[in-house]
Design a protein that fits this description.
six-stranded mixed β-sheet, ABC_transp_ATP-bind, Rossmann fold, ATP-binding, AAA+_ATPase, transport, 10 strands, 9 helices, ABC_transporter-like_ATP-bd, alpha/beta, binds adenosine-5'-triphosphate
Length: 263
Amino acid sequence: MTALRVDGLTVRRTGPRGSFAAVDGVSLEIAPGTTLGLVGESGSGKSTLAGAIVGLVPVRAGRILVDGEEVRTRTVRDRRRLGRRVQVVLQDPDTALDPRMTVRQALAEAATVFRRLDRAGRAERVAELLDLVGLDGRLADRLPRQLSGGQRQRVALARALAVEPGLLIADEITSALDVSVQASVLNTVRRLQQELGLSMLFIGHNLPAVCHVSDTVAVMRNGRIVESAPTGTLLRAPAHPYTRTLLESVPVLRTPPAGEKNP
Ligand SMILES: Nc1ncnc2c1ncn2[C@@H]1O[C@H](COP(=O)(O)OP(=O)(O)OP(=O)(O)O)[C@@H](O)[C@H]1O
């Protein structure tokens, strides 16, 4: 379990009208083993914030603490160290998966980044990871293009989990999937979080979907957090007009009945 704390984080970007704060003094906290949902429309700064946490985007001001320790991402060694504790899954699984590697190869590679495993150990770990994300072991010898979008996203999840991170950042991971597949992947994410005791930053633009997996939800607009509350409170009594707009503008997500097959 990993704790994350972000204090007064500011990231500046340059757009057509000059420099602006894409993330503007954001503070947030994720307690170990809990999920913080981050919701907001396109361009509100969610991905920039995620990128800053893992050192992909330079920070102008503020601090990022993982388990109380300030994150450093300057050297390869720093980034490797951080990667052991924090993993990211993005909207498009194709960016995470090498098209020439089978599922087995991709998972075995990730599983051995920080751990030595012999041949039998690798096979066992691959089977375990596929089972964890609800995929049939028979898919192990397929290439990414031989899988559906939902299956590819599950492989990307398994790959991130292979290094046993304490914190998972999921950035719009269901947005590119068919609506019928989204609910099933969301349920898997929620189960994984609970089973593994993961801490999670779950980013999305669909408020009901984000609420489905989150303990607390932060609403982001124009680089700022405009409201943050426990999920139940936010749904029952949204305080900010923008949160109310987000709640009214999306269809309610259908949750598949228990036992429904993973698409
Ligand atoms: N590499 C970049 N260079 C300059 N500006 C950027 C860059 N990436 C993002 N931006 C700008 O920063 C702002 C925040 O973008 P960001 O992608 O973080 O938002 P988002 O909420 O994640 O949206 P989306 O869901 O569409 O990814 C936007 O105005 C965007 O145009």
